[in-house]
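Q: Convert this sequence to structure tokens.
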Amino acid sequence: MSALRKKFGDDYQVVTTSSSGSGFNQPPPEKKKKRQRFVDKNGRCNVQHGNLGGETSRYLSDLFTTLVDLKWRWNLFIFILTYTVAWLFMAFMWWMIAYIRGDLYKTHDSTYTPCVANVYNFPSAFLFFIETEATIGYGYRYITDKCPEGIILFLFQSILGSIVDAFLIGCMFIKMSQPKKRAETLMFSEHAVISMRDGKLTLMFRVGNLRNSHMVSAQIRCKLLKSRQTPEGEFLPLDQLELDVGFSTGADQLFLVSPLTICHVIDTKSPFYELSQRSMQTEQFEIVVILEGIVETTGE
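A:
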């Protein structure tokens, strides 16, 4: 029985064994040079977009998704920078009201009612803003009823603070709850094997779940990435072909309580039907396996 083991995107070796499974009848070919993969084994896509030019504005139009897609160090930097700038700006606005009204120079006059009591410089205005925004309420600094502009600024501060909190905290929460780390406990076999199963030539690999929590509605798909030329002469450098892993029979719907073997029958409808064992060694292609499901514990 002939078997071909192919390591996705790396090297492969062709092994021919007898029906009894004894010995090697031919030595494996020399190790091929490692090729660049379109998709790494950790799921990271290596396809990079070129210069977008004027399309950068499209990222800014969906700012929330852009922030979620950023790396953690940039998220933390934007998080700290936004709050720092917003706090300094609002503290400056309270100091500006006190400066325009002359409260900074009349704090010692007992007959004068200031806009905000006990605000006499920028640090005290900043402390008043923090106490108000964080609802600490020490009671030493407070808005008086003789300051309508302070009341309007207080309302603006409350609305702006709610928007900033909802935007940034929501962004951080979604980024922390992304199920990317959960994918690290979904294991795929290191090699794919082509051999006979149930009397049919079959491409097989295994997938398993390391955690006790199940994957709900798990479904698996396989894509063959391969360049080809159409009968009209058009060259497609990255054509995607679907590999049938049981779509017609429902075998692609997985119940991952134990490791499962995924099978693709190489029949007349398979893209591998016209490939021989020798052409497998020189053909340039990549198989991408996509496993989708819902995490039982989080619903992600």
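The two ends are 43 Å apart (CA to CA).
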